[in-house]
Specification:
With 249 residues, this protein is an alpha/beta fold. It has a single domain, classed as Spore Coat Polysaccharide Biosynthesis Protein SpsA, Chain A. The termini are far apart.
């Protein structure tokens, strides 16, 4: 039985051309949710897929009652997928939104750890590779090095108790997410989110996770380590640092 004392939440998964892996993703998340007493939903945002992802989701929705499929008529980007998922969770009056990627590089077995911190009333819960119990598996050394350095710099600039600022596996109170205006459509929305939550989020917690690499049968990652992407990521920590120093926000 579902317990009314526990916070409700939606797992929001943006998906674009993930026909090879979306079935495994939905089943793994659904299995994790089945083990929890919380009222929950799984919201998959099909972001204009052209490879049959939508057809697979239609079949899965008939099998899995928690699954809610929302579609974009064209590919609008990761950030747009998150905003649509948040709106869906808010319309269903769910207390938290838990964002996950569709490639299972973050293990749905970590969802109960997020649920425990939601039950504690934490505003923002971030997965972290860089706390005890966290780590990476199968990620190239050069990517790990860039990530470690970038997250160290971002943490210092943000001034937040978060060691893995760039991690997209996180849970946020729905009321906080709906009170901010996010504009980024790319992956930099993760950093914009932290920046815009800074004045209103009061409590933070971290859940240790082990990040794995995308498997060979999935399409390549659309994340870029190019200068433009890095500049977009760094913009928000720099804005936060400037405001801290200047006494703004």
């Amino acid at each position: 039985m579902e317990s009314p004392q526990l916070p409700s939440f939606a797992v929001v998964v943006p998906a674009y051309n993930e026909v090879a892996g979306i079935g495994a993703c939905v089943r793994a998340i659904h299995e994790a949710l089945d083990r929890l007493p919380n009222h929950s939903a799984l919201v998959v945002v099909d972001d204009g897929s052209t490879d049959g992802t939508g057809d697979v989701l239609d079949e899965l929705a008939r099998e899995h009652p928690r699954l809610v499929v929302v579609r974009h008529d064209r590919n609008r980007g990761y950030g747009a997928g998150l905003r649509t998922g948040t709106q869906t969770a808010a319309a269903r009056r769910l207390d938290y939104v838990l964002f996950m990627d569709s490639d299972l590089t973050n293990d749905p077995a970590s969802i109960p750890a997020f649920a425990a911190r939601m039950a504690d009333g934490i505003d923002v819960v971030k997965a972290s590779r860089y706390v005890p119990g966290g780590g990476v598996d199968g990620v190239p050394a050069w990517r790990l090095g860039v990530s470690v350095l970038g997250n160290l710099v971002a943490r210092l600039l943000f001034g937040l108790p978060v060691h893995d600022t760039t991690n997209g596996f996180r849970a946020v109170r729905t009321s906080l997410l709906t009170s901010i205006d996010l504009e980024e459509n790319g992956f930099a929305v993760i950093m914009e989110e932290l920046y815009r939550l800074r004045p209103i989020a009061r409590t933070y917690a971290e859940v240790p996770i082990v990040l794995t690499a995308r498997t060979d049968e999935l399409r390549g990652s659309s994340f870029s380590f190019g200068p433009r992407a890095m500049a977009a990521y760094l913009r928000y920590p720099l804005l936060a640092a400037r405001e801290r120093i200047g006494g703004g926000r």
